[in-house]
Amino acid sequence: MYKSDIEIAQECVMQPITEIAKAANVDEKYIEQYGKYKAKIDLALLNDTNRENGKLVLVTAITPTPAGEGKTTTTIGLADGLKKIGKNVTVALREPSLGPVFGVKGGAAGGGYAQVVPMEDINLHFTGDFHAIGAANNLLAAMLDNHIQQGNALGIDVKKITWKRCVDMNDRQLRNVIDGLGGRMQGVPREDGFDITVASEIMAVLCLSNSITDLKERLSRIIVGYTYDDKPVTCGELKAAGAMTALLKDAIKPNLVQTLEGTPAFVHGGPFANIAHGCNSVMATKLALKMGDYAITEAGFGADLGAEKFLDIKCRMAELTPDAVVIVATVRALKMHGGLAKTELGNEDLVALEKGIPNLLRHVSNIKNVYKLPCVVAVNRFPTDTDNEIDFIIAKCKELGVNTVLSTVWAEGGNGGIDLAKEVVRLCEEEKGDFTFAYELDGTIEEKIEAVVKKVYGGDGINILPAAKKQIAQLTELGFANCPVCMAKTQYSFSDDPAKLGAPDGFTVTIKNVKVSAGAGFIVVLTGDIMTMPGLPKVPAAEKIDVDENGKITGLF
C-alpha cells in the first residue's frame, strides 16, 4: 500500500535527541533542547573539539524538471547508506521555507524512506530561525524609515533605498507596495516591497557567518540604500547591527535532528539557490565535518546554480575543500530534457534520452573538468525505468570516466544507498581532486560573470544592459570588484531562458541588474525575470494541509 511522506515520517519511532547527539560525538553540555527530538548546538563546540575534519561530500543534480530529481532524498539516503556500511556519518541540509511548503513544492525534508524527522516541525516553524531572520530584516527596515522620518541626517534618497521588508510566505500582493501613507506622523510615503525571507540578505549573511562577531560585522556592512550624492548607507551607520545580532544570537546556532534511520542531521539556514547562494550554513557544515568522518551536504537546484555557488562562494569564504561530488539524475527528467511531456515518461524512449543526456554530461564535465573534483552519477531509479535506459546512461558517463550507481533510497532507505555509499568512500579514499574555482577574485566583475557563463553554463558570452553597466561601474568605484559573483538565474536551463532544455549552446546571457550584498560579501547578478517574492499557484499545497483534534497534521508532503 502506498504511504505518503508524512505517513512514513509519523510511523518512525524517533530516538531522543540526546542519543542522536551522542552518535554525532556531541557532548551533552553543548545541547540546547527544543523538546525531545530537536536541539540547537552551542557554537563553542567548534572551538572546543580537537576532532579532525572528516570527508566533505557535496550532492548536486542535473537541471531540474517537473519530473523531479530527488536530490535531498538522495543526500539523506546516502548518509544512511554510509551508516549501514559502518561509517561515522553526519548530514548537513537547508531548512525549508514556509512559502514553498504551502505553495507548489510542498515539504523539503527528503521523501519516502529517506527523510529527516520530525518532518512536520522541520517543514513548519522548526526552531524559529526564519522568524528571527525576518524580524532582524524588518527591524533594519523600521530603523531605516524611522531615520528618514526623524530628520534624515544621513541624507538618504528615498528613491534609492534598496532594502526591502520580508515575510516567509509566497505573497505576490506584497511584491510592490506604497507605504508611509496617512499624513506626516505616519511615515514618509515611498515605493517599497517585500522579499520572501529566504531571499533576504540576512539569510545569506547568517549562512556565511563563522561566529557571532563575524555575523555582527557582516550585518554592519549591509547597504540599505544611497544618499542624494550616491554614497552608500550601511546598517552600521543606522546603528542597527547590535540589536539585529541580539535577535539572531540563537538562530545562528545549528539545529540537530535525525534521519528516519537515526543518522545525525544538522539542518540550518536556507537561502534560495536561484537568487542567493543556495547552501545550508557554514556553521552547520563545519560542525558536520568535525563530528563525522563523512559529512554529506547538498546545494540547491542544478549544479550550474547550487554547486557553482557552493564551490565558488561558500567553499572559498569558509576555506572548505570537497572530497567528492554526487550528481543526481533520473531517467524521467533526462527524457523531459529530450523533449518528452511529463505524461509520456512511463515508456522506454532511448531517442528522447539521447537528446536529454547532454544536460547530465555537461554537469558531470563541469565538476570533473572545471572544478577538478572526483564525482559519481547517482540515478534515482523509478519503477518505469528500463534496463536499456539505465545501461545507456552508464555507458555515456563511462566515456567521461565517471561511474554511475543506481539509488533506490526513496523506497528502501539506507539499504538502497549502500552501493552509492561504497562508491563515495572509494572516491574519497582513492581519487584525489585538484579543487579549482571557476574564476579568481582579482578579475573584473564582467570577467567573473563571463567565466561562469562560458565555463559552467556553456554559453558564448554575456550581454550587459546599460543599467547594469552603470551599476558595475559604481560597484567597482566603491571597491566591490574583488567579490565573488552570485548569479540570479532561472533554475530550469543552463541559459537564462527557461525554455532552453538539455544542454543548449550558441546563447548569450543578458545581465539586467547588478547589486552588491555587502554583508554576505558577494555581487548579485540578475538575469531574466527572477522573482524574489514568489506567488501561490491556482491550487496551493496549503489547501490539502489539515490538523485533527489531537494535533496530528495531514496533507503535508
What is this structure's SSE topology?
Blueprint: H1 5-11, H2 17-23, E1 31-33, E2 39-41, H3 44-48, E3 55-61, H4 71-84, E4 89-93, H5 98-102, E5 110-111, E6 114-117, H6 119-123, H7 129-149, E7 156-161, E8 165-167, E9 177-179, E10 190-192, E11 194-196, H8 201-208, H9 212-221, E12 223-227, E13 232-234, H10 241-248, E14 255-259, E15 264-267, H11 282-291, E16 294-298, H12 303-318, E17 324-329, H13 331-337, H14 350-370, E18 375-380, H15 387-399, E19 404-407, H16 409-412, H17 418-430, H18 445-457, E20 461-464, H19 466-477, E21 485-488, E22 508-517, E23 522-527, E24 546-547, E25 553-554
Parallel strand pairs: 3-16, 3-17, 4-15, 4-16, 8-11, 17-18, 18-19, 20-22, 21-23
Antiparallel strand pairs: 1-2, 2-14, 5-6, 6-14, 7-12, 9-10, 12-13, 14-15, 22-23, 24-25
Helix pairs in contact: 4-17, 7-8, 7-10, 9-10, 13-14, 14-15
Q: How many extended strands?
A: 25
Strand content: 15-25%
Major sheet attributes: 12 strands, mixed
Helix content: 25-40%
Q: What's the average pLDDT?
A: 93
Question: Which residues form runs of ≥5 with pLDDT under 50?
Answer: none
Question: Structural class given helices, strands, pairing?
Answer: alpha/beta
User: C-alpha Rg, in Å?
Assistant: 23 Å
- N-to-C span: 17 Å
Report the total helices.
Answer: 19
Shape verdict? globular
